[in-house]
Every structure is written in structure tokens, then in C-alpha cells.
Give the backbone structure.
Amino acid sequence: MSKVYKTILGVSAAAVVATAAIVPAFVSAWGNAGEGRKTYTIAQINNGELGDNIVFNSIVDSNENLSEKNKEAGVIMPLSDERNFVGARDKATGNNGKNNVWDGNTITVEEGKTYIVRLYVHNNNPKGEAATAENVKVSFQIPEVVGATQRVNGFIDAPGTAISSYWDYVDFKSADGRAFYLDYIEGSSLVENNNYGANGGKTLSDSLATTAGVKASYKANEDGKVPGCYGYASYYTIEVKPVFESSSIEKTVRMAGDKEWKESVDAKVGDKVEFQIHYKNLNDSMVKDVMIRDSLPNNLKYVADSAKLLNQSNPNGVAYEDPTVAAVNVGSYAVKGDAYLRFIAEVVDEDLVCNKTNRLINWAKASANGFAVQDSAQVYVAKTCTGPTPEPTPEPTPTPTPDVPTETPTTIVNTGAGEVVTGALGAGSMVTTLGYYIASRKKLMK
């Protein structure tokens, strides 16, 4: 299997409870602690089927079953299926109260837009403060991955009640298959209910957007107390912004003189290996002054004057500066433009460990417009010694990665004007952030 490129990507949610919008019923996304989950109609709740038990978000009914008095007053049910309690919408549509349209299943995102994610909390017991749940916590989980689909999970933890934990999610998906990550907008955490709704809600700690969560709030700030019945239900919201990939880098290696590029090779002291750093502009505009830096580990020594740059202007390659000493400028690249920077290193024995296979990890980083991406390739060197074996420093057992069935490029991708690559990652695929955690997430937020 070919190696996937590593990439970096270039509220008034509702008014008071009585005027919230209905979310389409969808039950396959929800879940809860314990076996199964009983649902109730409004009539069953009013008939006392819960008794003194406390459950959350378990009413499944329609507005047609509301009392005539409530219908005349313009009251509508917040959700027709409360199990689907996490939804999202485009913030640009504005706050239209009961006319807000929420998507509880999948929402297609667009670059540059901000989205509101909502979590609905309703203690279904109709006994009000006499059926108050305590120590209730709510939280969102935003994935720290890059992919064409992102799943935001919402959780309600209610210890000491009939069901201790509930969860639901909404999927964010790119329209064209481009990868992105979701950036939480700091300061956007909010709770709205009949207590706070008149003033546009109450701002909460940013912990709401993490697995740490926040204590529920109705009468007092984050006291964890949630009385029963619709009048005490709340909406918790956060804002997120999709940040799409802007560039990619792929680091590969081969034995000097070979044709096939790989993610790793086996070598011995004295061998020469050739590294290749492939940069590609996945932005929607030209990127200027792309800087590439390579970090050779111990036991790999740069071969003088071996660096070579290949791009549209230099299809046969041109001698270049050593990227292992300092970052080198490889030029500017239009949409879909790319460059290959190659150099040779010799395997030496500076501190190889005896009687084991040493893994030498070579990292490369490309940066432009204030953002950076990185990737690595490995060289495995076995060293056999006679006599007593020194105790090695413990390290993870190396796992060679599969070969990349990619031949040496004979032509360079045109760096002129063209469409943004849309198939870098297939729909639904995910790329973990191992080795290239996005340190610049907050830069991209504003």
C-alpha cells in the first residue's frame, strides 16, 4: 500500500426551550451506558411511568401529541427524537429561533465558514426541582486528526441516575473529498435555557470543547444541577471552523543507485542511502518561499555536494544547498505545483548499539505561509559485536513499513495554474497526527 501524504491544512444557537427547532429523527448515532435504552412518549411521561427515576433525552414523540393549550401557545417540541441530541448548522444563516435548521446526521462544510455544534440536555422527569439530577457533566470531543470526514461527539454524564452516560455525534464532511481538521473557536462555549436565554445565553469554560467537559448549568454557573421537565432543558453550543489542507510532504529513501523509493531500507555501515523530500502545494493560490529542512539522526552523515532540486524549472535537477544544516528556500509554487529535494547520506557508526537492529529516523519539514508539515523515512542498521554485549537503551521495537510502489519521477508536475487537488485523501479516510501534531491550529482559527 502506498504511503499517504502527511498534510497540514492550509451563539445564539436557539432561543428558549419553547421555541427551539426540531431536528430530524436519526437513531443510529446515539448510545448510552448499560443495556438498551427505553424511550417514552409525552403521554407516558405525563402518566407517571418514570416514577422517581431520572433519565435524560429519552422522549420520542411528535408535535401532534402536544396538548391543544400548548399548540395554541405556539409551543413545539425541541426534538422529535431526543436520542439524536447533537446537531450542527452554518453560523452564517444567523439565529432564527425556532426556524433554525439543524443537521443531526451529516453536515457538508465549506472553507472559510464557521459552524455551531449544539448539544441538548433534558431531564425527562416531570417533577421539576423535586427530581433534580446532580453532578451532571456535558462535553464535546473534537477529533485531532486530518481527514475528509470529522466526527464531533457530544456526551452527557449523569452519575447516580438510571443511565449514567449518554452520547451522540454529528459528522462534518468535505464536499470534494479534501482533508481538513476542525478548529475550536476559543471563547465560543455557551449555554442557553429559560434562565439564561433572555440575555443571549451564558458563556462557559472552553473545557466544554474537551473531554474534561463542564458541569451543567441552569440556576447557578456550572453547579451540575439539572431539574426535571422541559422548562429546565438547556442547549450547550460550541463553534468550530474547518481548516483545509494547504500542502503536503512525503519523505522516502532508497539505497544509492536503486530506482525504487521506499519508506525504509536495510543498510550497513559504509552504505550510502538517498533521501527524497516531495513537497506539493495543495492551497488554492500560489505559495511563496517554501522552506525545507532535514534533520539527520546520529549515524547518518550528509555526503558533501549531493543535494539536488527537481521542479518544473529544473526537470533534470540542479545542485542545491545542504538542507541538513539549515532550512533552504526551494522557491514558489502555484496550485498543484511541487518540488523534489534529494540528497545522499552515508551510514556511519557513531553510537550504534551492538547485537541489535538500530532504527535511524530521518525527519524532513516543509514550511510556507507560517505553517509546516513533516514526514519521516527510516534506515535500519544491524550491528553484530563480539564479546560482552553492552546494555542498550530501551526503545520501541522497529516495525519496517511497506514499500512504496512509486518509480523515480521522470517528469515534474506542472507548477502552473490548475485546479486544487481534490483526491489527496478519499472520503471518510483519516490520517493520524502521529509525528506531525498541528502546533499552528490556533493561527488558522482567526
